[in-house]
Design a protein that fits this description.
Blueprint (H helix, E strand, L loop, with lengths): L1 E5 L5 H18 L10 H14 L4 E7 L2 E11 L11 E9 L5 H18 L4 E4 L6 H9 L14
Parallel strand pairs: 4-5
Antiparallel strand pairs: 1-2, 2-3, 3-4
Helix pairs in contact: 1-2, 3-4
Length: about 160
């Protein structure tokens, strides 16, 4: 059974460690854009700690059998002034599961928990960040009814 709850400061170490593993995998597919800074995990942990304490952020953790299984952290932001989706945008950037096989279950449960809270707060849309080579996550997002709105293309200079 998957339990979704609000993230607490004690979750930050597990979240930061999971994201460090994700950045390592992303870097294999796009070594310039995703190149990790030498102190990336510590800096990210400090940033995550501020988000977990921020009442305006939507921070959720998934547990399976009382063990950390994934997380999602979103912010509600104004859309650029040239777009009008009808309200704030829920931007879901830091979002991962421990085991890629759990994207259809744990990942989707986390997405629904964040979207439900964002909707309650007046958000009009959700935008989820996903690396191009992150096939299990991309497929789970597609299965959840999301579609690609934009892609970032990059080249080293």
């Amino acid at each position: 059974m998957i339990d979704i709850r609000a993230a607490v400061p004690g979750d930050v170490a597990a979240i930061a460690a999971l994201m460090a593993r994700r950045r390592q995998a992303y870097e294999l597919h796009q070594p310039v854009f995703w190149r990790r800074a030498p102190d990336a995990e510590a800096r990210h942990a400090a940033f995550l700690a501020t988000l977990v304490r921020d009442p305006d952020a939507v921070c959720r953790v998934a547990e399976r059998d009382s063990r950390f299984a994934g997380f999602a952290i979103a912010s509600l932001v104004r859309s650029p002034p040239v777009y009008d989706p009808g309200g704030p945008t829920c931007t879901l950037d830091d979002y991962a599961v421990v085991d890629d096989r759990d994207w259809p279950t744990t990942g989707t449960a986390l997405l629904h928990a964040v979207v439900d809270e964002a909707r309650r707060r007046g958000a009009a849309q959700v935008v989820v960040v996903c690396g191009n080579a992150d096939t299990p996550k991309r497929e789970a997002l597609r299965q959840a009814g999301l579609s690609i709105a934009s892609e970032w293309w990059t080249a080293p200079l």
